[in-house]
Amino acid sequence: MSKPTLTTESGAPVADNQNSATAGVGGPIILQDQHLLEKLARFNRERIPERVVHARGSGAYGYFEVTDDVTGFTRADFLGTVGKRTELFIRFSTVADSLGGADAVRDPRGFALKFYTEEGNYDLVGNNTPVFFIKDPIKFPDFIHSQKRDPFTGKQEADNVWDFWAHAPEATHQVTWLMGDRGIPASYRHMNGYGSHTYQWTNAEGEAFFVKYHFKTNQGVRSLSADQGADLVGKDANSHQTDLLQSIERGVYPSWTLYVQVMPAAEAANYRFNPFDLTKVWPHSDYPLQRVGRMVLDRNPDNVFAEVEQSAFSPNNFVPGIGPSPDKMLQGRLFAYADAHRYRLGVNHTQLAVNAPKATTVNNYGRDGLMASNGYDRQAKNYEPNSYAGPVQTDQPLSAPLAVSGYVGTHEAPAHTKDDDFFQAGELYRLMSEDEKKRLVENIAGGLSQVSRDDVIEKNLAHFHAADQDYGKRVEARVRELRED
Ligand code: HEM
């Protein structure tokens, strides 16, 4: 078998890849050994900053196929025709741990999608949970600090985790979800995905709707108990990666069915709770699930670093017919992601193959910067307006305008009749079977009983009491029992 010649980065043939060049036999290494210097220097630069959250993840390519007509709600072209397929890339992730952390842990999972549409890339950056811990982005850095490693001990600390939640009653719903049976998915294939936020869709007539996305796994939801998770972490810390990779390699392609809940825009103002509050779900009895299509994952990336580590998703990558709602959390995220990418990957991260549009071309006046590799015609102007053939704006807003009123200031959310932080946590608890309730109480008490401050424990107990009397009573009894042991 003839093999290609080994070369330096500049393409010159390498004579010896086993022995460094020395001054005489047994002498010191000489500076002119370009191959050695380049090899060591490049190795030192292999790591880039990891994602500040969701550092550990797995990716796959696939497609989305429209199965149902939703043109009454959105003019998004990739959703416009039944049967239409759009290529996509997904990155699943855990949230709290750093790169190298284990997969089968109790943590939300990221569900980040990039649809390579003919109208540009559409990113839907969701989780496997329909709600979130907080509802204002100003709390996000504090929240994440409390969940990741403590700056002194270098470990995740129950004290910090529960101290934050003690001060965030709005987290009770998501905490109930996370500590329940779905808190440790068996694999990425066996969990649902949610857009979580409310988004805005606009149809061809300019009518606006608010929507929530639900991707239901066709593999069935499967989860692990705390003990099963711990066992699996010991056997294969990369269990989710192993499962996804092997399933696709074997030709067993995982799929999800996409449904949306659709609220006519005019109903938002008088809905009984704030429909843009990320800590709440919309009951299906108010807004039933409507099927849109299915997502199939059928190709593994060839190179994890190039395609998964360097993938970059931003909730502000919209396409015509889809836009943001006034959800404050979403608004904060519209800034945070592209900013993170500019730091983590550089200003030209959108030119990397996994991030660049595949079904359309980029045409703008953004130029240069570190690692610029996109070529422009030599006659192309780099300013606009111009008298030449450069690209021009469409004068067509991507989505319908959002009505606003009032004064600039730091406001709490608009008041709706039923905005309290606890009722949906209580509803979720009451939906659980007796066995599920037992496991939920055990998981919460196991963590909360490790907290060193009584006042932090009491504040958290008050949240569970406020959600449901029985829930509060049982968590409290179990925490007291465990602390007496
Ligand atoms: C990743 C910020 C809330 C889902 C990230 C990253 C940042 C960030 C900076 C790292 C991006 C990168 O380096 O590529 C925020 C802020 C939030 C917020 C400021 C609240 C204001 C949420 C919510 C969800 C979510 C509510 C889900 C509904 C994700 C996912 C990733 C991620 C899935 C990983 C994306 C990937 O796979 O590359 N977030 N986040 N985040 N976030 Fe958030």
**Mean pLDDT level:** 96
Low-confidence stretches: none
Distance between the termini: 68 Å
Q: What is the tally of helical segments?
A: 12
- Helices and strands, in order, run as HEEEEHHHEEEHHEEHEHHHHH
Q: Spell out which ligands are present.
A: protoporphyrin IX containing FE
Strand content: 15-25%
Our Rg estimate from Cα atoms comes to 25 Å
Counting helices, strands and paired strands, the structural category is alpha+beta
Largest sheet: 10 strands, antiparallel
Overall body shape = globular
Count of extended strands: 10
Question: What does the oligomeric state look like here?
Answer: single chain
Question: How would you explain this protein's 3D organization?
Answer:
It is a single chain. The chain has about 475 residues and is α+β, with helices and mostly antiparallel strands. The chain contains 12 helices and 10 strands. Strands 1, 2, 3, 4, 5, 6, 7, 8, 9 and 10 form a 10-stranded antiparallel sheet that branches. Helix 11 packs antiparallel against helix 12. The protein starts with about 35 loop residues before the first helix and ends with a helix. The model has no long low-confidence stretch (mean pLDDT about 95). The structure holds protoporphyrin IX containing FE (HEM).
